[in-house]
């Protein structure tokens, strides 16, 4: 992914009052960028170095655990399955945000999955927690600085595609960046060319070879009936969607809806990482006004728990395959 260009981003002159919200970064000459990414290249390197100094191996695969898939109480969860784990609670990592959502343990775990070194976010950051998108996605850049070349992003999502069932796995083949339609993008602000180009393409964000291979793996492992590929969209949350919103998303071609992943994938592709992502369908979206059920987070976590064995197995096999291709 080349395409870096010489365009210089315009710097806005601001007064000190504009520092509110902590979304502006002072430049050396005292000017402020609007909505800037406050994590400079150097500060991301510093976080990566803090971790590298404490881990005796350098993983090339990074995993982000979705809701219920990396919960601290999930002893059988994906993150808990890593062998010889080295754990870093987020509050112990300098300049790292903290997890505030149930089902997101809030630690980085380094270890081995299928004898392959990986690093795993056992808990991610969401926009609705109050973090801007660039902050939610910052750990992806830390992964990159550590040496990760392949990202596996997982999430819990509501199924819009009527052929899906609760507990199914949707391999993400594409996304619709709904928040981006309103200009909210993790790459908003001055571009740091050392991470990637100003205008990264997204038409092949999800690696086709990995999608194909993951489907083969699912079939070979007896999970074929559960697995689909489809289009994911992320809304800001935390409120679940209305019936009208869900009908609209269905008409737009979304197969599943969630509250994460898109900004992580954009950030990963910006720094040229290979991306594989999937959604665990934890609930079917309610598009019938007469339906008495309501979406809720407990159900999301419960389905994550129910599927943890299958997901762990599936991800281990995908990791095994990825390692062979590196
Ligand atoms: O972190 P993910 O995207 O898996 O979490 C989903 C979206 C909301 O955070 C939560 C709703 O139950 O689950």
UniProtKB/TrEMBL annotation:
The answer on whether this UniProt entry bears the keyword Transferase reads yes
Q: What class of enzyme is it?
A: transferase
Under InterPro entries, the record lists: Nucleoside_phosphorylase_d (IPR000845), Nucleoside_phosphorylase_sf (IPR035994), Pur_Nuc_Pase_Ino/Guo-sp (IPR011270), Purine_phosphorylase (IPR011268)
Known catalytic reactions = 2'-deoxyguanosine + phosphate = 2-deoxy-alpha-D-ribose 1-phosphate + guanine; inosine + phosphate = alpha-D-ribose 1-phosphate + hypoxanthine; guanosine + phosphate = alpha-D-ribose 1-phosphate + guanine; 2'-deoxyinosine + phosphate = 2-deoxy-alpha-D-ribose 1-phosphate + hypoxanthine
- GO biological process assignments: nucleoside metabolic process
Q: In which pathway does it act?
A: Purine metabolism; purine nucleoside salvage
SUPFAM superfamilies, per database record: Purine and uridine phosphorylases (SSF53167)
Q: Indicate the segments forming the Nucleoside phosphorylase domain, all copies.
A: 60-319
Per the record's keyword annotation, is Metal-binding included, yes or no?
Answer: no
Q: Which UniProt keywords apply?
A: Glycosyltransferase, Transferase
Q: What does this protein do?
A: The purine nucleoside phosphorylases catalyze the phosphorolytic breakdown of the N-glycosidic bond in the beta-(deoxy)ribonucleoside molecules, with the formation of the corresponding free purine bases and pentose-1-phosphate.
- Identify its protein family: Belongs to the PNP/MTAP phosphorylase family.
Matches recorded under PANTHER family: METHYLTHIOADENOSINE/PURINE NUCLEOSIDE PHOSPHORYLASE, PURINE NUCLEOSIDE PHOSPHORYLASE-RELATED
The protein's name is Purine nucleoside phosphorylase
Give the species this sequence originates from.
Pyrocoelia pectoralis
């Amino acid at each position: 992914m080349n395409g870096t260009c010489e365009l210089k981003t315009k710097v806005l002159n601001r007064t000190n009052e504009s520092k509110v919200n902590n979304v502006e970064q002072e430049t050396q000459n005292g000017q402020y960028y609007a909505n800037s990414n406050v994590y400079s290249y150097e500060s991301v390197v510093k976080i990566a170095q803090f971790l590298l100094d404490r881990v005796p191996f350098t993983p090339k695969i990074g995993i982000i655990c979705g809701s219920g898939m990396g919960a601290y109480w999930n002893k059988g969860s994906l993150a808990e399955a890593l062998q010889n784990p080295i754990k870093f609670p987020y509050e112990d990592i300098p300049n790292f945000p903290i997890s505030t959502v149930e089902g997101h343990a809030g630690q980085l775990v380094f270890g081995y999955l299928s004898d392959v070194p990986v690093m795993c976010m056992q808990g991610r950051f969401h926009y609705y927690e109050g973090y801007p998108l660039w902050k939610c996605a910052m750990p992806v850049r830390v992964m990159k600085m550590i040496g990760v070349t392949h990202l596996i992003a997982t999430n819990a999502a509501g199924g819009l595609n009527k052929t899906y069932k609760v507990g199914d796995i949707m391999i993400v083949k594409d996304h619709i960046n709904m928040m981006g339609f309103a200009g909210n993008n993790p790459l908003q602000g001055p571009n740091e060319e050392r991470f990637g180009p100003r205008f990264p393409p997204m038409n092949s964000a999800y690696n086709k070879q990995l999608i194909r291979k993951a489907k083969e793996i699912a079939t070979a492992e007896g999970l074929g009936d559960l697995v689909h590929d489809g289009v994911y969209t992320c809304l800001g949350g935390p409120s679940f969607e209305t019936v009208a919103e869900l009908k609209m998303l269905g008409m737009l071609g979304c197969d599943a809806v969630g509250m994460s992943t898109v900004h992580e994938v954009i950030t990963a592709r910006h720094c040229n990482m290979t991306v594989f992502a999937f959604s665990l369908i934890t609930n079917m979206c309610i598009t019938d006004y007469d339906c008495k059920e309501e979406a809720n987070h407990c159900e999301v976590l419960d389905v994550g728990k129910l599927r943890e064995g299958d997901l762990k197995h599936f991800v281990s096999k995908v990791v095994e395959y990825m390692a062979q291709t590196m």
